[in-house]
Design goal:
- With 146 residues, this protein is an alpha+beta fold.
- The chain has one domain.
- The chain is 36% helix and 34% strand.
- It is built from three helices and seven strands, in the order αββαβββαββ.
- The strands form two sheets. It has a five-stranded mixed sheet, with helices on both faces. The protein has a two-stranded antiparallel ribbon with strand order 1-2.
- A hairpin with a 4-residue loop joins strand 4 and strand 5.
- The radius of gyration is 17 Å and the shape is globular.
């Protein structure tokens, strides 16, 4: 049986994790990397620049915090996409969702479902485009294609 102390400690840990995730999202939202021009947190710019597969998501053309809504299987869904890159030349769209979890397995299924929702909502708007979803795990800045 959990004591009040255990419950309060768990609440404190959850609050800390949520705040840390919110702060990381805000910091990532400000990062822009294009040739010799960069903006945002220098530490994040360096970490992202070290991984070439991340650079397209942080170029000037990439949009941040993009709202999207629609119906999936008869259910209204409203979401906000962390990073969205639409390439009209090759008709592709890349969706990036940030996740700050240290353990990638705990909520992975929920996160994958979330990215699939983004893709489904975008497919309704861009039926002729190939859409790919990704998760950026910010604990190690690894990119996972969904």
């Amino acid at each position: 049986m959990k004591t009040l102390h255990d419950i309060l400690k768990l609440c404190e840990q959850t609050h800390f994790a949520t705040d840390a995730g919110t702060q990381m999202h805000k910091r990532l939202q400000r990062v822009m990397i294009e040739a010799d021009k960069t903006s945002g947190d220098p530490d994040l710019v360096a970490r992202i620049s070290a991984k070439s597969e991340l650079l397209p998501f942080f170029c000037v053309a990439a949009k941040t915090e993009v709202p999207i809504a629609g119906t999936i299987k008869g259910r209204f869904v409203s979401r906000r996409i962390d990073r969205l890159l639409v390439n009209t030349l090759d008709k592709t769209i890349s969706v990036l969702d940030y996740k700050t979890d240290i353990n990638k397995t705990i909520n992975r299924d929920k996160y994958i479902a979330q990215v699939h929702e983004y893709v489904a909502l975008l497919q309704a708007v861009y039926p002729d485009y190939k859409i790919a979803g990704y998760i950026l795990w910010t604990n190690d800045f690894s990119l996972e294609k969904i």
